[in-house]
Design a protein that fits this description.
There is one protein chain. The chain has 274 residues and is an alpha/beta fold. Among the domains are: 88-161; 166-272, Alpha-Beta Plaits (2-Layer Sandwich). Helix content is 66%, strand content 9%. It contains seven helices and five strands. The protein has helices at residues 9-105, 111-124, 126-138, 144-160, 177-192, 205-211, 223-240; strands at 167-173, 198-203, 218-221, 247-250, 259-263. It has a five-stranded mixed beta sheet. Helix 5 (177-192) links the parallel strand 1 and strand 2. Helix 1 crosses helix 3 (126-138), helix 2 (111-124) packs parallel to helix 4 and helix 5 (177-192) packs across helix 7. The radius of gyration is 41 Å and the shape is elongated. The chain starts with 8 loop residues before the first helix and ends in an 11-residue tail after the last strand.
């Protein structure tokens, strides 16, 4: 049936095709306009999810992390300041000891008094004692006996290093006789190496629960301030028991300066006992 009257069939077919092209063009134009709109809707939808869901959920996590980080930095600064105060106090104390002992140690006319003063200073303040010991050892005006005593002090300090300024606590669990005996062995062996500032402590299960039970044999120390002393202690313990393998455990910074702790195995580790 003809749509356009008065036109031939060929003319009508041609016009119909023209109309279809116009309709198709209109459809394409409509689709092209709708696509950016849909895209904008998707973008708005993503923004909504970020604003309403993700960001509110992430904020507490980020704030918690920042709070933890700031707290850790604050703890480290506090520890450093505490250690700096201790060092300053030690420096002042060393100056006082120099004033007290200098006269007796430098008095070459009285070797006995020299030797007593040098030995006493070495026990009280090893770092100052080694300086005087070297000076006495090199001074030919001092007697041979005094120079030999100074040499022995020098050897002690070379072997013990900063450990001379430290106390060592050896912990074992209450009721473990074999660990108690081993602690005595370590203490006696350290004494033979001229290190005697050792204390053995028996502790119950509650104590170990608070400080975290050891995994085998451990030397616990503050990495920031006590690494060198812990290294010297480990070497001495190996001399006492060459088969011993002590784990070097970096502990949380403590409030007790110049203290190293040795933990012996408990319960499940008994089969590993020496």
């Amino acid at each position: 049936m003809a749509i356009f009257s008065g036109f031939s069939e060929g003319k009508e077919l041609k016009m119909r095709k023209e109309i279809e092209k116009v309709d198709e063009s209109a459809k394409l134009e409509k689709i092209s306009k709708e696509k950016p709109l849909n895209k904008r809707r998707k973008v708005r939808s993503l923004s909504w999810w970020l604003e309403k869901i993700l960001i509110p959920a992430l904020v507490p996590i980020v704030l918690g992390f920042m709070t933890y980080y700031v707290q850790q930095v604050s703890n480290k600064l506090s520890s450093s300041q505490h250690h700096a105060l201790i060092q300053q106090s030690n420096a002042n104390k060393q100056l006082k000891y120099i004033e007290l002992f200098y006269k007796d140690i430098s008095n070459t006319s009285d070797p006995r008094r020299q030797k007593v003063a040098l030995s006493l200073l070495y026990v009280i303040e090893p770092e100052v004692g080694i300086l005087f010991a070297r000076a006495v050892q090199l001074n030919r005006e001092n007697s041979k006996e005094v120079r030999m005593a100074a040499e022995e002090i020098g050897k002690d300090i070379e072997q013990l290093g900063p450990l001379l300024n430290y106390k060592v606590y050896i912990y074992y669990q209450k009721g473990q006789t074999n660990m108690q005996n081993y602690a005595e062995k370590l203490k006696n062996g350290l004494a033979k190496s001229r290190y005697r500032n050792v204390q053995i402590l028996e502790k119950d299960k509650d104590f170990y629960a608070r400080v975290k039970p050891p995994k085998g044999y451990e030397i616990r120390f503050d990495e920031q301030n006590e690494s060198e002393a812990a290294f010297y202690l480990n070497n001495l313990l190996k001399q006492v028991d060459p088969k011993a393998e002590f784990n070097m455990v970096r502990a949380i910074v403590g409030l007790t300066p110049y203290l190293l702790t040795v933990f012996l195995p408990i319960n499940d580790d008994l089969e590993k006992s020496p």
